[in-house]
Design a protein that fits this description.
443 residues, alpha/beta, 3 domains, two-stranded antiparallel sheet, 8 strands
Length: 443
């Protein structure tokens, strides 16, 4: 599998293309094929060179590509020879980065408890008192423990000692509990650490069945910011659980609460989960649970109240369109959906035909409970673009100040505004029509 896209994304996140040596791109794209060769000499030279001229690419290849190959071959492929020889070179700048993945690779060939214990002790000695994002030592520790658990070898005390130390180190990382601020790289790192901590607490819950463990597993499961930065943990989740669907422990905690007579807390959890991910499945589960335990209020009332408690106050602005003025300083009877896009944005352009279709359907209704608008930012020849594609949805070219008022950080951005002038952003990469329907409860 080619990983060129990963490399391009990394380049965008780290530096402008012009600041990255051209040779770094050539080296990083050549490594997967070099690992497959019996003679590791060329792969070693390329790895050392890449680490020297642009280390972020080397680190990316190591954890996102080599790790996948190791898992697939279970330590039996030519990449094992490469990794062993690279480790023997004893270059400190590389050795510190590759040591955890090197130890994990060794675990595949171990089938005796005494050998497993020896590796576990070696690994534990490498753990410091803080996390290490470059070497991902916590990830590979979890993978080593998983490998030995699957084989039912190794001291339980040693494995528990490692898990406890990893939990401690992750818990002390300042990114774990702080609001997600900073650039995409920081947000991806936050998402990665939170994923590992949630996974670790779930392991503890499977052992001790305590509420504290599953509560923490739920707490550190992907939040809205993490879900927008899945690239921070996508490949790591594949290594550990083989499926992104199996890393959200909130539902598991909700079931635990419900079984233990804590329905009100479970309901709050379901409300939060559905607010973050307003899928049909989540809304169905929320409605079903609500109807079981609440009799004196309609679901629509409690859902509306919850949304208003979580949504933000909309900026009090007026935006002029061709045939009307959208006044966001006044309350109204209907919801408002705003798509913020630009003619320069490929993902935005891809969605416009469907957006135009939906906007036509609802905007022509006299009694429509939702109206669709769009804000264009920094577009070139907007009117010509609209005419060329026969789009009829309302569009207004906005300035940077409006994007700042709505805290737009990426495109397209989708804004949903309630009749009470509260707004939320619909996450990227979801079925936005489904989310609108479930937030508004409009058929």
């Amino acid at each position: 599998m080619k990983r060129i896209l990963l490399v391009l994304l990394l380049a965008i996140n780290v530096l402008v293309y012009s600041q990255i040596p051209k040779e770094a791109f050539e080296l990083t794209n050549s490594l997967p094929d070099l690992w497959e060769k019996e003679n590791p000499e060329e792969a070693i030279k390329s790895s050392e060179k890449l680490n020297e001229i642009f280390q972020p690419f080397f680190i990316d290849r190591l954890h996102h590509s080599l790790a996948q190959t190791i898992l697939r071959n279970k330590g039996k492929g030519n990449e094992t020879v490469f990794l062993n020889e690279l480790y023997k070179k004893d270059k400190i700048s590389i050795k510190k980065i590759i040591e955890p993945i090197y130890l994990w690779n060794k675990s595949f060939k171990i089938n005796r408890s005494d050998k497993a214990d020896s590796l576990l002790k070696t690994y534990y000695a490498k753990l410091s008192d803080s996390t290490n994002y470059n070497s991902k030592i916590e990830l590979y520790g979890l993978l080593i423990v998983k490998e030995f658990e699957d084989k039912e070898i190794g001291s339980s005390k040693l494995k528990d000692k490692i898990l406890s130390k990893i939990v401690l180190n992750l818990s002390l990382n300042p990114l774990i509990n702080n609001p997600a601020k900073g650039n995409r790289r920081i947000k991806e790192e936050r998402a990665y650490y939170r994923f590992l901590l949630a996974y670790n607490y779930n392991l503890l819950f499977e052992k001790n069945k305590t509420e504290e463990s599953i509560k923490n597993a739920s707490k550190y499961s992907p939040d809205q910011t993490d879900l927008q930065n899945k690239s921070g943990y996508f490949y790591d989740a594949y290594l550990l659980v083989n499926d992104l669907k199996n890393i959200n422990y909130k539902k598991k905690y909700i079931n635990f609460l419900s079984k233990n007579g804590k329905q009100e807390i479970a309901l709050d959890m379901l409300l939060e989960e559905t607010y973050i991910q307003a899928t049909n499945e989540n809304l169905k589960n929320l409605k079903g649970f609500y109807n079981q335990i609440v009799k004196n209020k309609t679901f629509k009332t409690i859902w509306s109240n919850y949304l208003n408690s979580k949504m933000l106050e909309v900026p009090k602005i007026k935006v002029e369109f061709k045939e009307e003025i959208l006044d966001l300083s006044k309350k109204r009877d209907s919801w408002v959906y705003i798509d913020i896009w630009g003619t320069w944005c490929a993902p935005c352009i891809k969605e416009l035909p469907e957006f135009d279709k939906v906007a036509k359907e609802y905007n022509k209704k006299l009694d429509s409970k939702i109206k669709f608008y769009s804000f264009s930012y920094n577009s070139k020849k907007l009117e010509e673009f609209m005419n060329k594609n026969n789009y009829t949805f309302p569009v207004s070219e906005i300035n940077k100040q409006i994007t700042q008022l709505f805290k737009v950080s990426a495109y397209p951005t989708k804004i949903l505004i309630s009749p009470d002038n509260k707004y939320l952003k619909i996450p990227f990469g979801v079925n936005w029509k489904e989310f609108i329907k479930n937030y508004t409860l409009i058929d």
